[in-house]
Design a protein that fits this description.
By secondary structure, the protein is mainly β. The chain has two helices and 13 strands; from the N terminus they run ββββββαββββαβββ. Strands 6, 7, 8, 9, 10, 11, 12 and 13 form an eight-stranded mixed beta sheet that branches. A hairpin with an 8-residue loop joins strand 3 and strand 4. The longest helix has 6 residues.
Length: 190
Amino acid sequence: MRPICLMEDSAVSEQRMGLQDGSIPGLLDIIDVPLGEPHPFSFQPENYLIADGNWRKINVYNKSLIESLVDNPPDLWGGSSDRIVTSSLRNNPPSSSLYLIKPSSFRIFKSKFDGKLTACFEYNTFQYGLKVTDLKIESEFEKSRSGNYVFENEQIYLCVSLGVPFQGFTDAEPCCYKLVASVIRIPLTI
């Protein structure tokens, strides 16, 4: 389930997702969210409109149980490309636009040109290079130099998502980009 707003990109602002104590939900927080009607798009079938009301933190998910939540699609929406043309999605809509996956390798690349982060990883023998939209990771790397960063002594899980349609400079038609929405890092015990 993905809570959305009726805005241009359907993203929920931090102001709208604020908890009763004024804080913002964290990764793996279990949150009670007032929801309205289902509002699926052909490329995001799990969308629900948020309703008025306060978000409430119930608990924090036990990291040691995260393996039970992992999805196992054969690939990420048709192979290793970082995008899918929307006409293809209209003709063959995905059953889900969100996956929690466990990559077999993972690193972050920070571009020296624009400072953007790319998650480079292997999943089911496919090599991926997807843009990172995880605000915590973006903040963590804000002052880092460009280059590659490997996460050692941590098991990595990724929440990957199909974004809303966007037509980039090199795209012949609008595409839904594959994005890394969250990077979940679990320390390995030695």
